[in-house]
Every structure is written in structure tokens, then in C-alpha cells.
Amino acid sequence: MGTVVAALGAVAVGLGAVHPAQAGYASLVVDGGTGEVLNAVNPDEQNHPASLTKMMTLYLTFEAIHQGRLHWEDELPVSRNAANKEPTKLGLEVGQTVSVKDCVLGMIVISANDGATVVGEALAGGSEQVFARMMTDKAHQLGMTNTVFRNASGLPDREQVTTARDMSRLAMALHRDFPQDYHYFATREFDFEGRHLTGHNRLMYRYPGMDGMKTGFTNASGSNLVSSAVHDGRRLFGVVFGGSSAKTRDTLMATLLDNAFANRDTDPKLVALAAGRPLTRVARARGTGRVAHAGRARTVHVAVAPVQRRGHAAAAHQRVASGHAGRHVTAHAHARTVKVAGKAAKGKVAGKTHGHHHKVAAD
What is the CATH number of the domain that holds 205? Predict the structure, then answer.
């Protein structure tokens, strides 16, 4: 069990315990090669994952495929529970079937809540509740000891909680355990039942080297993001919780990654600013711990310490406050256009709902 030394004193974090979560703010950047935590703000504070939850649904889906329990072309039945999920969704109807591949692409591209539920029920004998327990068990096996899942999609549930550190563990596990499937996280668009759908992980489209992973939003969580990017062969994973908007969240992520690749620190005030909050309580760290690559937790001591150089802090503050990500706002021409090749690219796409429905769960 990790121990966090915060500004207001030591706080014990219970193994897998469910604590009241709110739309707090948190961030973390970890080196994918070494597991070293490069920068963290409130990394062990529990928040709601929103559609980051689908990363675990995808982990269990990939695992089932590689174990032969599911196949990409399998047609899965759509239950009333799945069809009735709030947007965003593929618009599946009760009684129809949908392929595993379309559910995976739906989860990644438009954060389809119905597609996530279909797969979860298929893996758990028809019960989303049973699948949620499977998700939580797998999380704890991966060292995500402060995470509890209650559904397959990330739709609001007050007991569904995680932390920035735990989500970085899941991101690294997806990349490590399913290298042949990780490329799906870079999918920008696909076709479903005659309709074309494009994704909304917009930072990935303009940040050079970024090739995944997942966005999320609910009113209770704020705007969340897990990203991975590679520069000069070095892969970093970043997590942001509680952004006040997708724009400020994306800008903060770009700043965090920029600074980490350049071996600079990021002022924790920027994380609070991106959440529209004053800096009140922070557990922050640089180089004081590791995110375990194996399925076990490590003890990490995190202390408050000002390390941001004044010039870099001012420049980064200006970038977040103005809503721009420096060169990355204009870097679209350098980002690769990524589509799923072959049969995967031409399945079906739907997206029955966008717009205000994103306020429910998943941007």
C-alpha cells in the first residue's frame, strides 16, 4: 500500500478501498521504459474515471481474444441493458448482433457505451455486474490497488473510482501485454452500418509522436485523458484528471509531455489551473517513485517541493491559460494519419449521438 506525504500531512490510502470521489485534479507522467514517475500531482487521489474505464474493458477483451475465448469476427448479442445505455453510443438495438471488432473500434473511436456493455456481458455470462467484478479483480492484479469498477463503460457510478497512478499502470499494461493490438488506440475513424464516424481524441491528431490512448468525461469527473507518445525512441505515458474542458485538458497534457521529454518539471499550479481550481492541496513528485511494470504495488513517497524554474513556469502558465499548446497546435501536418487497415477499417460506424450527450459520459 502506497503512502502519500501531502502538504496537509500523511494520508493512508487503503488497499482497493472506495472513498468518496469528486472532480478533483490530478496528473502523472511516467517513463514507459523505466517506470520512473517523472512528474505527479495528486497521483493517488481517487477520482471517477469516466470513459477511461473502457481501457480495462479493452484489456479484458484483448486478453479473451488472445486466449481464444473471443474472436474478432464473433457476433455478440445486444441486450436491453446494452441498448439502453446513454450516449455516446453506436446506436445498437435489442436483439441485433455486433462483432467484437466493431465493439472495440466503437469503444476507442467514439467511446461507445453500448459496445462496451455488449463485450462485458459476453465475457461475464450476460451480467455487467459480474464483469465489473472481473474488471476490479484484474485491476488489482495489475497493481491498481486504489481502483474499483462498477460498469463496463464508465457511465456515472459514485463507487467507480481510480487514480492517476493506477491509470498509468493500466496504460503501460495495455502497451506491454498486447503490443500487436495497441495500434487500435490510434484509430481515428471507421464505418459502421453505412455511417462514418470520426473520433474526438483531438490532441492525438496534432501532437507529434502520440499514438493513443483514451479520453473521458462526466460531470462528476471533469475531462480526463490518458495519452502515450514517443520521441526519439523514448515512450512516455501521461494521465490528466479533472480538466475544466477538453481544450484545457489537452493543453495541459501537451505541456506535461513537452516538459517531460525535455527533462523539465511542470509547475503543479498548471494542473490546478487546467481544472479551473486554486492550488489548495497537492501531492507532487519528480523522480521519487516508480510505476510497477509487474502486477504488484510499490511503496512510493511523494512530497511537496517547488522545483519549477521561473522562466519555464511562466511560459507553461501562459500556454495553459491561453488554451494553446505551443508548436503542437500547428503540428497537425506532422502527425500521422492513422486508420485501421483492411477489414477493420470498414466495419460499421454509427455514433447516433454527439453534441450535448457528451455531457453524460465520454468525450
Answer: 3.40.710.10
Partners of 29 in the beta sheet?
Answer: 39, 238
Catalytic residue among 27, 79, 99, 111: 111
CA 220 to chain centre: 15
Given the residues 51, 99, 227, 228, the one annotated as active site: 51
Q: Residue 63: CB partners within 8 Å, gap ≥ 6? A: 177, 178
Provide the domain count of the chain: 1
**pLDDT tens-digit readout, 148-207:** 999 999 999 999 999 999 999 999 999 999 999 999 999 999 999 999 999 989 999 999
- Cα–Cα dist 300/323, whole Å: 33
Q: Cα–Cα–Cα angle for 24, 25, 27, nearest 5°?
A: 145
State how far the Cα of 59 lies from the Cα of 135, in Å rounded to an integer: 9
Is 51 one of the catalytic residues?
Answer: yes
Residue 214, annotated ligand binder? yes
Indicate the SS3 state at residue 313.
Answer: helix
16, 29, 7: which is closest to 263 by C-alpha?
Answer: 29
Mark whether 348 is an active-site residue.
no
- Per the residue annotation, which of 27, 54, 79, 168 is the catalytic one? 54
Instruction: Please tell me whether residue 168 adopts helix, strand or coil conformation.
Output: helix
Q: Which domain holds residue 155?
A: 3-359
Which residues 6+ apart lie within 8 Å of 232 measured at CB?
A: none
Query: What are the residues whose beta carbons fall under 8 Å from the beta carbon of 152, sequence distance 6 or more?
Result: 53, 54, 57, 116, 117, 119, 120, 121, 128, 131, 132, 135
Q: Is the pLDDT of residue 296 over 50?
A: no
**pTM listed for this prediction:** 0.77
Residue 245 among the catalytic residues: no
